[in-house]
Amino acid sequence: MDGIQGAFYMLNNRRLERKAMYAYGRRRFEYHEIEIGKGLIGAAAYEKALIYRTEIPDDYCAITSGLLGEQKPKSILVVPLLQEEELQGVLEIAFLHKTLPGYMITFANEISSIIGQTIYNLKITTRTELLLVESQQMTATLRENENQLRNNAQEMIAAQEELERSNKMLESQIQEVAHSRKRLEALLTNASEFISIYNEHQELVFESPSVKRILGYNDEDAVNGMDPDILTPRGLKTINSLFLYLLETPGGEQTAQYTYLRKNGEKLFLETKGKNLLHDPAIRVSFLIPRT
Prior knowledge:
- This protein is α+β, with helices and mostly antiparallel strands.
- It has 2 domains: 5-127, 2-Layer Sandwich (Beta-Lactamase); 191-291, Beta-Lactamase.
- The chain has 4 helices and 13 strands.
- It has a 6-stranded antiparallel beta sheet with strand order 3-2-1-8-7-4. A 5-stranded antiparallel beta sheet has the order 10-9-13-12-11. A two-stranded antiparallel sheet has the order 5-6.
- The longest helix is centred in the middle third of the chain and has 89 residues, at 102-190.
């Protein structure tokens, strides 16, 4: 088109930003932004119509040339770049001759729509590529989150299964302990021997029914194997020494001899075997098993 100077502007957020230029001299380093409706470029953008001017404003940029030096342009052509009446940018061309042929202006009008469509296509392509990248990143993030959720679910299932196994094992152990206690209670209840069980405070926890029978007392009589009324003083001292030894010796065993008094006043010589099971979590008592 025989232009000696030119600039290309793109629309960005209702403002025109200069993206390229030709023969602008030092001003090519300046950032240039124009509002819609201001100046020749802004007016062409607002009207969406080509502007051809031969009256050049005094403040218009001079044309710089190595052969011609600096000169004011004689005519200016400002062409809006449209895509179906939608503004995409503006093309500014300056000439050193004042009159432009009609075919040149017609050509500028025709090519403006091609350039506008190209800009629009490039914007759509760029936007599509950005959306594609965002979609791929989102897909990767979702896939990573899905894998993490799947791993968490598997870990939770494994933990739940382990908890269920632990609960079953615990229930089995509890049942075994309960059965063991029941068997022990049955053995102690039906034992023909003189069996007494005490806690760490020397308090009677259990005594076999045979105790009263061996000592000659009835079921209604309130007596037990440690009753001082049915122990001789020496026997009471012996039993207390036995307990002191057992309390100081976890798991220890000791035998002692002492004398009981039957209900009828008759003395009964007994030999007692004591064992400390206070530290056994399943039992936690001391046994005394006297023998006549």
